[in-house]
Amino acid sequence: MAKKLGMPDLLFKMDGLGGSVPLWIMEVSFSWAKDEVMSSICRYAMECKDVQVITIIDTCKSQPHKMPKDISDLTITMEGRIWLTLKEWKVVSDNPAFGPVMSSVPHQWASPLTIKVKTWLCHPDREFSLDKMNSSSYYVCVEICPTRDSAEIAHLNSVFHQAMKLICDKITGYVQKHCELDEENLSAMRKWIPPDPLFNWDKVVNHVRKGMLYDGFDWYCDWHVNLKY
Fold first, then answer.
1. How high is the pLDDT of residue 117?
2. Tally of domains within the chain
3. Would you place residue 77 in the very low, low, confident or very high pLDDT band (cuts 50, 70, 90)?
């Protein structure tokens, strides 16, 4: 289900003296809302001057969901009026994200997804080139589902690694300016190395698969409630 656009999800923020300081803005959206998403992201990028990274996880369904038109065969398949549980409804062959969710009630309850991760890094002049869509050291766009290119994933991971170093430098600078911390601890902060890779994309896609399965089951439940025999 699409969520109402509002304040972008904040993946990473710091509690400062004047309140929370967003450092990494992340938004998960559907492709049909990309113009609204970009408008929202641009607005917050201008307002939040400490942001170092912007990420949009863009999802696109292969086709919009449609309820069954002819219910006669489905009603027979359902063995009368029994409302199936999720365990009864799903089948082993269902492969959410990579393939349609057909379930034991044969209808395409969910369509395959194309998922792309778009990330911008802040330039040294503290600006973002959100209008630039060519792969560079400051922007990357990688498909993580249904296909995944190892070289592109490596580039994405390197950009995230760079992003975490930018964030670390920002936090270290803030601590040095506003907190009483000895040089030994400041040196340890500067030497910190972010985990590599930052994200486990297999786990990300697995969560997407589970979400799609529940989404398809919700469509089935809505359809079943409105059945008229």
1. 92
2. 1
3. low
- Whole-prediction pTM value? 0.77
118, part of any domain? yes
* Other beta carbons less than 10 A from residue 150's beta carbon: 7
Print the domain residue range for 165: 9-225
- Cβ partners under 8 Å of residue 220, min gap 6: 84, 89, 103, 105, 107, 109
Residue 68: DSSP 8-state: -
The pair of three-digit structure tokens given for residue 41, joined into one six-digit string: 């992201």
Higher confidence at residue 72 or residue 209? Answer: 209
Retrieve residue 17's tokens: 């003296």
Contacting residues for 215 by C-beta, under 8 A, at least 6 apart: 1, 110
Per-residue pLDDT reduced to its tens digit, 22-63:
899 888 877 666 777 788 888 877 788 888 999 988 888 777
For residues 35, 6, 118 and 42, what is the CA-based torsion angle, rounded to 10 degrees? Answer: 70
Whether 3 is in a domain gets the answer no
Instruction: Report yes or no on 4 lying in a domain.
Output: no
The Cβ of residue 71 has, within 10 Å, a number of other Cβ atoms equal to 17
Query: Residue 135 has what pLDDT?
Result: 65
Eight-class DSSP state of 13? E
Q: Is residue 185 situated within a structural domain?
A: yes
CB-based burial label for 42 (10 Å; 0-12, 13-18, 19+): middle
